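User: I've been trying to design a sequence by hand for this structure and keep getting stuck. Would you show me what you'd pick, starting by listing the structure so we're on the same page?

Assistant: Good idea, let's start from the same input. This is the structure you sent:
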C-alpha cells in the first residue's frame, strides 16, 4: 500500500472542483442577478506553485461563470472546463490527452458530483465538510475551510513531496 507521500510524488495532473473547494461554496447575488464568488489569493499562490513545478492544473466545474474564466486566466490555468455534468469523464479525457495513468492524477472535490472522479484518481482530496462517504474515500482531507487556505494546503503538500516541487519560498 502506497503512502500518501508516495501518491503525491506521482501527481502530474490535478483537477479541482471550483465551488466549495477554491471558493467557500457560497454564491453572492447582486440586485441585478449577477453572481459573485470569492477566491483566496493564498490559494492562488499554491496553484501557481504547482504549475511552476510542472504539474498540470485543471478546473472542472458544473457551473459556468466568467468569474471562473477570469480567475483561471490570472493564475495561468490552461485547462478550464465549465458546465460539466460528468467530471469523471472530463478528467478521463484530459488524462488520456496527456497520456497519464489514473495513478498520476489527483482531484479535489467536495460533493457528490465529484465522487466518481475521486474514486478513480491516485490521490483523492476533499474538504472536512464533504459527505462522510467522500471523506472515507479520500487520501487527504483539508483542515482549513474551502476558499480559506484548503487548496493552498493541498498544493503545498503535493509540491513538497513531488520530485519537481519548487520550494514554497521560491518565486
Amino acid at each position: 500500500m502506497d503512502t500518501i507521500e508516495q501518491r503525491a510524488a506521482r501527481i502530474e495532473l490535478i483537477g479541482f472542483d471550483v465551488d466549495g473547494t477554491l471558493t467557500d461554496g457560497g454564491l453572492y447575488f447582486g440586485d441585478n442577478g449577477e453572481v459573485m464568488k470569492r477566491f483566496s489569493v493564498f490559494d492562488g499562490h499554491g496553484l501557481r506553485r504547482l504549475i511552476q513545478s510542472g504539474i498540470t492544473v485543471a478546473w472542472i466545474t458544473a457551473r459556468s461563470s466568467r468569474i471562473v474564466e477570469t480567475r483561471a486566466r490570472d493564475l495561468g490555468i490552461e485547462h478550464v472546463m465549465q458546465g460539466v455534468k460528468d467530471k469523471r469523464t472530463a478528467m478521463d479525457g484530459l488524462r488520456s490527452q496527456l497520456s497519464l495513468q489514473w495513478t498520476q492524477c489527483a482531484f479535489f472535490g467536495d460533493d457528490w458530483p465529484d465522487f466518481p472522479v475521486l474514486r478513480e484518481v491516485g490521490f483523492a482530496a476533499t474538504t472536512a465538510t464533504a459527505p462522510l462517504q467522500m471523506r472515507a474515500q479520500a487520501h487527504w482531507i483539508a483542515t482549513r475551510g474551502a476558499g480559506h487556505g484548503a487548496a493552498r494546503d493541498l498544493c503545498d503538500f503535493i509540491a513538497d513531496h513531488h520530485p519537481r516541487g519548487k520550494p514554497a519560498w521560491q518565486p
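That's my pick for every position. To get oriented when you compare it with your attempt: Residues 159 and 171 are 14 Å apart (CA to CA). The chain has one domain: 4-24+36-110+120-125+139-161.
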